[in-house]
Amino acid sequence: ARSASKRLAALSQGPVIAMFSHVGFQDAADGASHQATTYLAAVGAIPHTTVIVPSCPDEAEELMYQAIKRFEADRAAGKDGQSYIFFVGRENYPLSWVDNPVYDWGKAQVLREGNDVVLVGSGVLLNRVIEAGEQLAAEGVNATVVNNPFVNQVDLETIGDAVKTAGGRLVTIEDHQVKGGMGAQVSHALSNAGIAHRVKTLGIAGEFGQSAYKADELYDKFGLNVEGVKAAAKELLA
After folding, report:
1. Euclidean distance between CA atoms 197 and 187, whole angstroms
2. pLDDT one-digit tens code per residue, 182-191
3. Of 63, 112, 134, 235, which residue is 20 to 30 A from 147 by alpha carbon distance?
4. Whole-prediction pTM value?
5. Residue 8 structural domain
């Protein structure tokens, strides 16, 4: 019903700004019926719709402000404009993950630079790639760590350049089905741009979620953790 209403809004030239509090496994206690593990694909495919998955409250607030201003500017110019759909979870969100962050509209953020492998995350799982990047560096593997909030509007300039520098080695992580998810959309955009790469996508492989006390329990069950990111990176480097 949620994706259907957004589709009708776009079809009727009535764009909306919406924020969903269910994303991935973040509604752990209520189980699979309440977990939004397919919504990035369903909503991201709607024309004239931008899907945004902030990694922290600071990012959510800033990008929401920018979305409202863009919406206002489009209306003032007589344009229909875009729908902006935010997916924000409920657990494990600090105010920000890094000091003095800059949130530019439509851009991915490079949080660490390296030339061995690229680690891309979004939403609450961003901390997995941040920590994995730190641990890999201590082991002699230099990773570029990227925050990718604009799931269906891939920032090819930032991510593509990073992937080229890393010899095409890419790891993505998300608490979403791998089919149609963030990683699949990044890989598809890279392929369309002729950027050769090999990708390891950590996500949900055609299964439903389940109830848990906290989402962290499900992340570990599905291998969506620091160890999983590191193992995927090392496999690409082997």
Report:
1. 8
2. 999 999 999 9
3. 235
4. 0.92
5. 2-87
